[in-house]
Amino acid sequence: MKTGLVVAAMILTASSVIAQNPQTAQQSDSARAANARNRGGGRCRSAPSDTTGNAYNCVDAPNPLSAPATVWLEEMTWMDVRDAIAAGKTTVIIPTGGMEPNGPWLVTGKHNYVLQANCEAIARKLGNALCAPIIKLVPEGNIERQTSHMASPGTISLREDTFRAMLTDVVHSLKMHGFKNIILIGDSGGNQPGQRYVADSLTKIWNGNPVVAHIQQYYDYNKVSQQMGSKIVEGKSDNLHDDPIITLNMFITDPKSVRYEERVKANKATINGFSIADRNKSLELAREIVAFRAEVTVDFINKSIANKGTLPPPPRP
């Protein structure tokens, strides 16, 4: 209950402050009226004689360039995003990763590399979706006294309330730009509770407009392993925070993230007895992993949108 009130308070803070100061409210209203056509970080040119504005800063300025091929918001201009939403791309995915230790082969940004491949695949398969920037910092254990992954150098952790507050602000920002479906996917186990809570809380506060949904089923590595079956046969465990599925999912984004060339040269290109040394074979398997994860996630995104919010937690095995 306390946390729910905090989330609601974050949404209402700005309006509450203005309501307590009528003069500020009046100034803000007049300023908004005067600047209603301003966009793009500058002033809209009000007339041909206006030397302090620019026509490209106007709310309805035509985009001088064709639409980019990307699905990532950070790789688009404000005009690109505006036009994409107007054209029907009203679903946006917020991916969360992490910075944590993963043995001697995988870089600390493991989950972020995975999401670079997976979010793009999911958005393209949906057809009407874009990807928000990957949220790379998440709860990884107590900062002081250090617990869990925080014991290993390179880990960066957030307090749970900080994580939830950040998610709330990101979701709220995207809502204000007109997205109708805001989807949360997390590639790490510790991300799931906060995402579910924020999604459920905001869906309730906004009465399902927009739909805010956490997709728990995205984070199901066991199902991916079952799907790959005999194509990825592991031997004795190396007892590392690593496995062939996640290694290959990173590999397709950047082989350097799994230290591919160095491992091949040092005859260390295996994990749990499975070899990744054959580049072509590894890429083929990686593509299959990404495609399967996208297919499963898209199915549950569509079900969540139809449900007007996060689906009930999957039953425990």
Content of β-strand: 5-15%
Low-confidence stretches: 14-19
Q: Architecture, CATH level 2?
A: 3-Layer(aba) Sandwich
With strands numbered from the N-terminus, the spatial order across the biggest sheet is 2-1-3-4
Can you count the helices?
Answer: 10
Structural class by helix and strand composition = alpha/beta
CATH homologous superfamily descriptor = Creatininase
Give the end-to-end Cα distance, rounded to a whole number of Å: 29 Å
For the biggest sheet, the summary is:
4 strands, parallel
Could you give the count of β-strands? 6
In one word, what is the shape?
A: globular
Q: For the residues shown, what is the average pLDDT? A: 92
Count of domains: 1
* CATH fold-level topology: Rossmann fold
Query: What gyration radius follows from the Cα positions, in whole Å?
Result: 22 Å
SSE ordering = HHHEHEHEHEHHHEEH
* CATH hierarchy class name: Alpha Beta
The percent of residues in helical segments reads 40-55%
